[in-house]
Automatic annotation (TrEMBL):
PANTHER family, per database record: ASPARTATE AMINOTRANSFERASE, ASPARTATE AMINOTRANSFERASE-RELATED
UniProt-recorded name of the protein: Aminotransferase
One Pfam family, short name: Aminotran_1_2
Assembly and binders: Homodimer.
CDD domains, per the entry: AAT_like
GO terms of biological process kind: amino acid metabolic process
Domain of life: Archaea
Family: Belongs to the class-I pyridoxal-phosphate-dependent aminotransferase family.
Ranges where the Aminotransferase class I/classII large domain occurs: 34-383
Length: 392
């Protein structure tokens, strides 16, 4: 019996995942000279020396072996201490799972909670991975708009209207990527109450919690709905540790148990010496001094970019109070889509910005600008944009 020859075999589920529009733009930019990128969502700072030194010591001390699947107990204790010290929230270490960044924590939550026939509510615009994770979990996706008139905060009334009998999860991300919006305490409480009333889980993705400006505060969702919240967090943004791939999830025991089970087969455990460095990141005051210095620099850049954008023709920025992004509205009279505008700006100013549609349909008419870039490059990028836009 002869079988039909195939060049390769590929699972159908791979085809439902969309390639990131962000990556496509970066690839185009990589083939051009003299380009300044305001697209990447990564701190331009180096990891604080005290954290790097801790990792080096850990290597010398023999932290080169497997760890428990959930993570090194002392590291999970340090995470619990952090939430007690910063937010006065009691977290049991058995409710904590160390993950390969918040990316993995989010993936594990979707896979552990959702299945075919379930619905998940995802804001629009929102970070790109949520929709793709939902597709892999075969869940139905309900997009709920984040509106400019509500300062891009999730509206509790619209949330209630979006809930169906099949809704099992709501995704929350504040401080927000891509808008830079922050959540008011009253709204956090309202969402917590809704989740508890309807017996729905909240996936709260909180990696930008320490980059806040103008007196804004962060309110972790686990403080208000501990039995309904799966919190995803990361060391990547806070401590400029993107390449270290260190994050964690906090969830109710019945959920974290199954997340750990899946994590054991996906990753096994996060790198041992990186976890030891994480302990220093959380407990050493020098780490937090470095975080505050980064926050102050980001705030200076935020003000600088806002000043430029407010003086530019055809653009109107939303004033962010968190993260390190500015969400910018394109003048409708230009008659350009978000993707058209991003391509035009790359071609005419050699500046990369991210089209709003990379984050959902509601992002049409907007672009995201990252100010996680050194001051001189930011100024040069702003001058280029101003000159190009003045010719329209």
């Amino acid at each position: 019996m002869r079988y039909k020859k195939r060049k390769y075999f590929l699972a159908g589920r791979i085809n439902i995942i969309q390639r990131s529009k962000i990556r496509e733009l970066f690839e185009k930019a990589s083939k051009m000279e003299n380009v300044i990128s305001l697209g990447i969502g990564e701190p331009d700072f180096d990891t604080p020396e005290v954290i790097k030194d801790a990792a080096k010591r850990a290597l010398d001390e023999g932290y080169t072996h497997y760890t428990p699947n959930a993570g090194i107990p002392e590291f999970r204790e340090a995470i619990a201490e952090y939430y007690k010290d910063f937010y006065k929230v009691d977290v049991d270490i058995d409710n904590i799972l160390v993950t390969a960044g918040a990316y993995e924590a989010t993936y594990l939550a979707f896979q552990s909670i959702l299945e075919q026939g379930d619905d998940v509510i995802i804001p629009d615009p929102a970070f790109v991975c949520y929709v793709e994770d939902a597709k892999i979990a075969e869940a139905g996706i309900i997009r709920i708009p984040l509106r400019e008139e509500h300062k891009f905060r999730l509206n509790p009334d619209e949330l209630v209207e979006a809930i169906t009998k099949r809704t099992r999860m709501i995704v929350i991300n504040y401080p927000n990527n891509p808008t830079g919006a922050v959540m008011k305490k009253s709204v956090v409480k309202a969402i917590a109450d809704i989740a508890q009333d309807y017996n729905i889980y909240i996936l709260s993705d909180e990696p930008y919690e320490h980059f806040l400006y103008e007196g804004a505060k962060h309110y972790p969702m686990i403080k208000y709905a501990p039995d309904n919240t799966i919190l995803a967090n990361s060391f990547s943004k806070t401590f400029a540790m993107t390449g270290w791939r260190l994050g964690f999830a906090i969830a109710p025991k019945q959920v974290i148990r199954d997340m750990i089970k899946l994590h054991a087969y996906v990753v096994g455990n996060v790198t041992s010496f990186v976890q030891i460095a994480g302990i220093t990141a959380l407990r050493d005051k020098r780490s937090w001094e470095a975080v505050e210095r980064m926050r102050q620099v980001y705030d200076e850049r935020r003000k600088l970019v806002l000043k430029y954008l407010n003086d530019m023709p055809h653009l109107q920025p939303f004033k962010p109070k968190g993260a390190f992004y500015i969400w910018v509205k394109i003048d409708p009279e230009l008659d350009m889509t978000s993707e058209d505008f991003a391509d035009w700006l790359l071609d005419n100013a050699r500046v990369v910005v991210i089209p709003g549609t990379a984050f959902g349909k509601q992002g049409e008419g907007w672009v995201r600008i990252s100010y996680a870039t050194e001051k001189d490059k930011l100024i040069e990028a702003m001058e280029r944009m101003k000159e190009a836009l003045s010719k329209l």
